[in-house]
Amino acid sequence: MGARAGGAERAVEAVFREEHGLLLASLVRRFGDLDLAEEVASEAVEAALVHWPVQGVPARPGAWLLTTARRKAVDRLRRDQVYAARLAALQVETDRSAPAPRADPGAELPDERLQLFFTCAHPALPAPARGALMLRCLAGLTTPEVARAYLVPQATMAQRIVRAKQKIRQARIPFRVPGADELPERLPGVLQVLYSVFTEGYAASSGPELQRPDLTAEAVRLVRILYRLLPTEREVAGLLALMLLVRARQDARTGADGELVLLADQDRSRWDRALIEEGTALVTAALTGGPPGPYAVQAAIAALHDEAPDLETTDWPQIVALYDVLSALAPSPVVALNRAVAVAMRDGAEAGLALLDGLAGEERLRGHHPYPAARGDLLRRLGRGPEAAAAYRRALDMAGTEPERAHLRRMLEAARRPA
User: Fold this and answer.
1) Which of 31, 224, 266, 297 has the most CB atoms around it within 10 Å of its CB?
2) Which residues contact 283 (CB under 8 A, 6 or more apart)?
């Protein structure tokens, strides 16, 4: 009995992790209340933990959870006189409306996660709340897990999520996919939230670790879902390609003790070739059929890095050309910084340093430690040790993770030594 109970518990956890966003989206669409949906989804999981060890795991576990959660929601609404009228209205609306479309003919439940993506990333919500809601509602992370993902206290994250839900109710943010005329305006916001989650996982902003693999995994999983839901949107393909091509290098970015390993020093045999092949195929799809989008161009740059056998033989002229395209599509000081580093690899440290010095007044680079770190690297290559040391010192003051700080301390000491 113990083994069976353990197996059922693992089955509940696996199903809930995979189906959580789908289950929650179906409940929100049916009842129009995110809090209610989360509560009855949790109650359905508790019921599964009671019944599945005895009755066995059902053939369609996701559908079982949805049916159970719906019944619990209806029971709760019937007991609450305040919601009686809402329940009646919901029943009339459900009877009149056609069944929700299925995104996948093999899916057990109507796939309404696309509406939930756009609800969580609605521009009316505060920016910090959008990623938190996506991780909470679509990835199925608990509030403590989301708090750890954003490196904030649990109470702070709980308040942030509560306020976001209140905003959804008070502003009457619709649970729907934007129309074809709205999609070009709204989709970039969804993609930006997902990319921000991935970036925080791949290059953490603070903490003892350089990377947060759990966070990158969840971001990739969410973008895979979005790509299945919007397979013809080329920028969705571009973002998925970018994430896969960057994530392919994840294991080689740190050494045995968690230290930072620069791109030039990475063991490229440790790069994930399956992810590189998948990402490269997606780059082709993202660049085909019209002008490229920013994520597709960034993915093309990542593909050139992943295809090169080493740093020296990387196609730096092509990378600079792609950064020129990206600068026209989505100009930013960070893009200009990355382009300057690529120019330094193509034309020499002096050329790259001149471009970096031209960015000295950019407000967005003031607290961005890669900027002074890049200047330090180029100054060191030019034999200007004291200036390089000063640049590394500034970068060290800004860096947030301990592996980055340890690397910058080593570079600072090297720059201080006599030539």
Assistant:
1) 297
2) 238, 241, 245, 296, 299, 300, 303
CA atoms within 13 A on the CB side of 243: 28
Q: Which CATH superfamily, name and number, covers 337-419?
A: Tetratricopeptide repeat domain (1.25.40.10)
Give how far Cα 139 sits from Cα of 64, 161, 415, Å: 20, 14, 45
| Tokens matching residue 5 | 């109970």
What pLDDT sits at residue 360?
93
- 13-17, 135-139, 318-322 — which is least confidently predicted? 13-17
CB burial readout 65-91, b (16+ within 10 A) else e: bbebbbebbbebbeeeeebeeebeebe
* Positions of E strands within 25-135: none
Per-residue pLDDT tens digits for 242-256? 999 999 999 999 998
Give me the chain's average pLDDT, please. Answer: 86
- For the stretch 145-160, pLDDT in tens is 888 777 688 999 999 9
* Domain ranges (residues) in the chain: 1-95, 112-207, 231-331, 337-419
